[in-house]
C-alpha cells in the first residue's frame, strides 16, 4: 500500500493562493493519498530550511508564494541543494510584470487579503447569501445580482455561498410543483436568473443518500423516480417562462458552474 504523500504550501502571508493552485492541481489526478500541508506567515530563514528538510524526508514537493525576495531566493537555493522540487507560484508572474511594464512590486505580504472595498463587498455578499438562502425572504430576489432556481439538491446553496465569496450577491429558490414562484422573481430587472437542473438518475442517487444521512426511509416520495421527474418537468416549465439560461450540474464541480455564471455576468 502506498504511503501518504504531501504537498507543502508556503507563504509569507496566509498561503491561500498557493493552496488554491495546489488543490486545483490535485483535482486533475487520482490523489486520495496526497495531502496539503500549509505553512503561513513565514518570516525567517530557519523556517524555510526546516520546511525544505521536512519535504525532503517525506518525498514531497513545495508550492510557495513568497514576496520577500530574500526568502524567495533562499527557498530556491535550499530546495535545489536538498533535491526537493519547489514551485514558485507568484514569482514568474511578478517578473513578467516587471519586465513588461517596468514597475516594481510593493513586496508586502498579504496585500491580497487587505481590508478594502473588495473585502467589504465579499462580506456583504456572504451575509446576503445566508439571509436569502432557500427562498427565505422574497425581497432577496429583487436585490440579488444572481438568482439560482432549481429543484431540491441541485447545489443551489453551496453555489450561492461560492459566488458570495466572489463578492456576488446571490439568492436561491427551490422549485416545487405545490408552490408558485413569488412575484418578486418575475418583476425585478437587472439580475441574472439561472436555472439549475440535473439528470434524474443522478438526482435520485443524491436524494437517496440524503435520506440515509437523515435516518429516513429510502421509500420516501422525496427520492422516488416519479416525484423527481414531476419536479424536473415543473422546474423546466418555470425556467422557460422566465426565459433564463439553464445549467446542467450533473457531475459538474461547483467551481465550474460558478465560472460559467461569472462569465455570463461579465458579458
Question: What overall form do the CA principal axes indicate?
Answer: elongated
Report, as a whole number of angstroms, the end-to-end distance: 49 Å
Main sheet makeup:
4 strands, parallel
Indicate the radius of gyration in whole angstroms. Answer: 23 Å
Oligomeric state as shown: single chain
Percentage of β-strand residues: 5-15%
How many beta-strand segments?
8
| Content-based structural category | alpha/beta
Catalogue the unreliable spans.
none
Spatial order of the strands in the main sheet? 2-1-3-4
Tell me the number of helical segments per DSSP (H or I, 4 or more residues long). Answer: 11
Helix and strand element order: EHEHEHEHHHEHEHEHHEH
Give the mean pLDDT: 90
The helix content, as a percent range, equals 40-55%
Task: Give an account of the 3D structure.
- It is a single chain.
- The protein has helices at residues 16-26, 45-58, 69-82, 91-101, 117-131, 140-143, 156-164, 183-187, 200-214, 225-242, 254-266, and strands spanning 5-11, 34-39, 61-65, 86-88, 146-150, 170-174, 192-197, 246-248.
- The protein is of the alpha/beta class and 267 residues long.
- The strands form two sheets. The protein has a four-stranded parallel beta sheet, with helices on both faces. The protein has a four-stranded parallel beta sheet with strand order 6-5-7-8, sandwiched between helices.
- Strand 5 (146-150), helix 7 (156-164) and strand 6 form a beta-alpha-beta unit.
- Helix 9 (200-214) packs across helix 10.
- The longest helix is centred in the C-terminal third of the chain and has 18 residues, at 225-242.
- It is elongated, with a radius of gyration of 23 Å.
- The mean pLDDT is 90.
Amino acid at each position: 500500500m502506498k504511503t501518504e504523500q504531501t504537498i507543502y504550501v508556503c507563504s509569507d502571508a496566509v498561503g491561500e493562493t498557493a493552496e488554491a493552485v495546489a488543490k486545483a492541481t490535485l483535482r486533475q489526478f487520482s490523489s486520495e493519498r496526497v495531502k496539503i500541508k500549509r505553512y503561513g506567515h513565514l518570516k525567517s530563514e530557519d523556517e524555510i530550511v526546516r520546511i525544505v528538510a521536512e519535504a525532503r524526508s517525506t518525498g514531497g514537493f513545495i508550492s510557495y508564494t513568497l514576496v520577500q525576495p530574500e526568502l524567495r531566493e533562499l527557498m530556491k537555493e535550499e530546495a535545489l541543494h536538498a533535491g526537493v522540487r519547489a514551485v514558485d507560484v507568484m514569482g514568474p508572474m511578478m517578473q513578467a510584470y516587471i519586465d513588461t511594464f517596468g514597475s516594481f512590486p510593493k513586496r508586502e505580504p498579504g496585500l491580497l487579503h487587505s481590508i478594502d472595498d473588495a473585502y467589504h463587498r465579499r462580506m456583504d455578499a456572504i451575509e446576503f447569501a445566508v439571509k436569502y438562502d432557500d427562498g427565505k425572504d422574497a425581497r432577496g430576489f429583487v436585490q440579488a445580482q444572481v438568482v439560482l432556481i432549481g429543484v431540491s439538491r441541485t447545489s443551489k446553496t453551496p453555489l450561492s455561498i461560492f459566488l458570495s465569496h466572489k463578492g456576488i450577491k446571490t439568492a436561491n429558490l427551490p422549485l416545487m410543483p405545490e408552490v408558485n414562484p413569488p412575484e418578486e422573481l418575475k418583476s425585478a430587472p437587472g439580475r441574472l436568473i439561472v436555472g439549475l437542473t440535473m439528470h434524474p438518475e443522478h438526482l435520485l442517487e443524491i436524494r437517496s443518500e440524503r435520506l440515509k444521512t437523515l435516518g429516513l426511509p429510502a421509500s420516501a416520495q422525496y427520492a422516488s423516480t416519479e416525484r423527481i421527474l414531476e419536479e424536473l418537468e415543473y422546474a423546466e416549465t418555470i425556467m422557460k417562462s422566465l426565459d433564463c439560461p439553464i445549467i446542467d450540474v450533473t457531475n459538474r464541480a461547483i467551481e465550474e458552474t460558478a465560472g460559467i455564471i461569472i462569465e455570463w455576468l461579465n458579458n
